User: Which sequence fits this backbone?
């Protein structure tokens, strides 16, 4: 998990601190963003005696580096640790994010996958988290069973909310809270995804939970801006089954449609990061 704070931001500089549980953040690269534009970068290399006294690593958790933004954009600057989806926000920040039609760019996706392989190689993440993130980032969709095996040989079923929270926290790298949008129909499905993708307060991924069998038809990879794939219904469309036994994790920027009888509905689980 990543903790930290943006403490001071001006039109030409940003400073604060960041801490990771593996205590290996010193000299790591930080990227400052306004909306989708990188406006500066710098390393974690400033000694903070207050953090050292609090028992947070060796105290070299501070950062201070130049940025370049307009004065009116200062309150929307965020900080990302390179190779991670975790974001440091300013208190009360209004963050602009890309819309549903934009998605990831290919360079960002490749950088994330490379960092993910490095994290697995050096035992920074589990194999399960690696598989989940690799599949979700690459295809925009991931299927997860709600059943798990126990030592007594009798499988137990986890709740959709608990599994969704676990997966979203793996994606974001921070603690999150989840909530449910109930009664989603086939007609309202795509509009709801687009609304979530545009909401800067919500994680860009959602979970689909259904008590009845529902088909989610996904154009795999369509959340990547330069994917160059055919439209929904083409050869790259793949059907995923949502049911009481499994959960579908979906990037809200992917092209998808819900196939469901008119009198049936499903639930959609959204998540937002808890304040640091």
Assistant:
């Amino acid at each position: 998990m990543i903790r930290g704070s943006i403490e001071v931001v001006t039109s030409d500089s940003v400073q604060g601190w960041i801490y990771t549980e593996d205590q290996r953040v010193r000299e790591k690269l930080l990227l400052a963003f306004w909306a989708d534009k990188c406006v500066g970068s710098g390393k974690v290399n400033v000694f903070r005696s207050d953090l050292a006294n609090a028992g947070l690593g060796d105290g070299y958790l501070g950062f201070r580096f130049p940025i370049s933004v307009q004065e009116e954009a200062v309150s929307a600057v965020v900080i990302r640790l390179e190779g991670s989806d975790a974001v440091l926000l300013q208190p009360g920040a209004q963050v602009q994010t890309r819309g549903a039609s934009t998605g990831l760019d290919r360079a960002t996706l490749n950088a994330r996958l490379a960092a993910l392989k490095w994290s697995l190689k050096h035992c920074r993440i589990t194999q399960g988290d690696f598989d989940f993130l690799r599949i979700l980032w690459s295809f925009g969709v991931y299927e997860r069973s709600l059943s798990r095996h126990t030592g007594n040989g009798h499988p137990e079923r986890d709740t959709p909310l608990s599994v969704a929270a676990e997966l979203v926290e793996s994606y974001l790298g921070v603690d999150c809270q989840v909530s449910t949008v109930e009664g989603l129909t086939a007609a309202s499905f795509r509009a709801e995804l687009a609304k979530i993708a545009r909401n800067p307060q919500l994680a860009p991924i959602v979970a689909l939970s259904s008590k009845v069998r529902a088909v989610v038809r996904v154009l795999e990879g369509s959340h990547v801006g330069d994917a160059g794939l055919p439209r929904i219904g083409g050869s790259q469309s793949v059907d995923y089954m949502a049911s009481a036994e499994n959960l579908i994790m979906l990037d809200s920027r992917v092209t998808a449609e819900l196939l469901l009888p008119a009198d049936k509905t499903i639930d959609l689980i959204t998540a937002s990061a808890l304040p640091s």
Residues 92-102, 227-235 have pLDDT under 50 and may be disordered.
